[in-house]
């Protein structure tokens, strides 16, 4: 019995690493993790776990030694199937063994040691209860992760507070630093990338890397990279709950703010579009006094945000009919030409009527807004209009945000795998349509975190796919049901539709059907927590 209990506890610890990975992908938030656990893509009880149930019953309740041994064998066999499935399923984001994860693993081990000691020294009657508790914890190992998080929370709070204060001390050593805050439902990272590549030619600029758009992400950036010689910090600001942007503004105190767009993103947590508008608007509301707000006048939600008398407002638009707009934009575009290789347009400074022709390799109409907003900030900071084309012509796209490359000299891959949204997905299809090539193929699991709008928006996505794509590969039968309905209503041929079980299956199907000079769009690549299992 001693060895058997010890074995089960070791297996619980090994299984808990998978739970930690999912908890990490849910931003260490119990609420989000709990929602994932009870979500439609998650299955609490796997068929192979009947082996464990039978094994645990034999091990705990039968007095016969060989039946107990058989029970342990069935328990090990179940864990083998668990390991086999996890090994065969390639994780998109592996567990990042940070200091916090190490502390949680240590706490996991302590809890299990205490359980073992409690069982070892318990009276016979209590032993059976503890054996059942331990046996149940194997199937509910996520509870161990939750317990560890709760136990460690006071320590984690103290550690985080130390890091936050240290980052603020580092910023205080650079009082002349200009902080540019960028938020929006879509386009934050791409706008940050454009702005950085323009400004870094004339200024010493630091930007938050990748999607480091949380308070801890900003903290890590500042503590690791910020130097007294930096003149500008470009801070991407993400939000999933009301107050998130205010918290970031209170932390880094932006002088300049850009809201790229406001739309139905993260409605799973925001619940309503009104909450999204209010939260994104926190950037303008909490800019430093006499700061500058860059306003996308093509977005009605941004235009309706409260006005501050002490701010300087710069308006920009990608609407070529800007002359009839109210308010009249300060920066607008004319004579737009889009292709599968990039874009060209004329930038107009409306008050002075000065114009310059610009060319970019970035794809898609939505990238025009990212470029215009970045250019507008650069011009207001003193960059000359005459140098703009030289500065933007070689701007490279952010990886997985509508970048493209040729695969084995056979087909073109349009990679738009990072977190699709209603506007971005529509624009990606527009780019796919414009690309010169043979067949147009899409691989997508659809869009997520759209709350009550999810079905309608994904169904519309399916209707848009039907107009452009010669072959469609959907990832996940359940989560793509709205797209399937949109395709069916658009009379899309069933012979041109394949529903893959996961991304590996989708890529296998792609290898089977793809031909010379085809163009393949990967639109969204869901994190592991959205896999259908």
TrEMBL record:
Domain of life: Bacteria
GO terms assigned for molecular function: ligase activity
Pfam families named in the record: Mur_ligase_C, Mur_ligase_M
InterPro entries, sorted: Mur-like_cat_sf, Mur_ligase_C, Mur_ligase_C_dom_sf, Mur_ligase_cen, MurCDEF_CellWall_CoF430Synth
Transmembrane segments: 50-83, 104-123, 129-151
Record bears the keyword Nucleotide-binding: yes
Name of the molecule in the record: UDP-N-acetylmuramoyl-tripeptide--D-alanyl-D-alanine ligase
Source organism (scientific name): Fusibacter ferrireducens
